[in-house]
Amino acid sequence: MTRVGLYFAAVQFLFVTCWTVYVIYLPHLAAQAGIEKKWVIYILMADQAIFTLMDFSIGVAADKVSRTLGRLGRLLLVLTAISCVAFLLLPIAAPSASPLLFLGLIAIWAMTSSALRAPPMMMLGKYVPTPKLPWVSTLSLVGLGVAGAVAPYLTVSLRGVDPRLPFALSSIALVAAVSGMLWAEKHLAGTAAAAPEPAAKKPVGVGVVLFFAAVAMLGFGFQAHFALNSAPLYLRFARPEQLDLLMPVFWVGFNLLIFPACRANERFGGGGVMAVGAVLGALASALAAVAPSLESLLVLQFLAGGAWAAVLMSAMTAAIAIGHVGREGAATGGLFALLALATFVRMGLVAAQVNKDPAISALLVWVPGVAWLAAGLLLLWLVLRFRAPVQA
Hints:
This protein is mainly α and 392 residues long.
């Protein structure tokens, strides 16, 4: 199982790295295609809207396709190949393409790249025994955390580099990695056949609705804390050129503290760990808003990253449990769709320049704490009242 988890970590790392490369070069490529810079944020919002729709749709499709062994792996490979071809063509087509063709390639890339979000987690939920699920999910998410940590360094290192090179390298690497999905599916299916387990208890409807409501609040809290508030908080004590070194601290905490969170998940269940992680994240975010020094802010950002790791890893295992058996793709697709929706809302605030209003920005620093605390309390109530929907 560890080998499979590391493989999924590599896939997630390469997927997020492709997104980082895309965001770095999008303003330049859009300008080459004749699209003004002011429209870039709306293109990114459209990407998130596509993710929101496609994550759930592809998750549902994955549930149906996975009923025949080997079909899901082939589907992921085909969709990833289409995605990478569209991604590879972006820097090639931008200088000579019309804006509509350029936007069409982006839409194709966004729609097909959703195949690497929910379906791999659905595959884990379908085949990995429940006691081992937190560990494999943890390893998978480490790839995401490492990609988040290296993103600022990638931004610096790619300055002045011809976009065709990183687009080509990241596309080829991702296709090569996803080609192993056939092996992963067969390996997981063989393990599951050798060690069958009883079906999990079905959750009640109201618990599922409230669980996903908590996920939506947690997703927006994360977006507000990391994407909107972290840089301004650091700039109280540091220079702008130091942000590339400071922003990854959150992801360092994510990558290191996810392992004790995994052990807690195995011992106490996903719902309880998710709730505690949300409350601790709320506390760390609130204290970061009034941190008296850079050193204390770094510690709090490290802890906030660890809290988000506990939340995200537990949310994955809990969503899989909600969909078990037969609807793991729909459940994990719903989870990723809500996270994409939270990103869409955050980008909408940036597009409207709401975060630049002094009065609103003064309140914005408290939004993550409030959102995470409300979600944590809701999850605690769910653990006590409806344990099945939130237990891994």
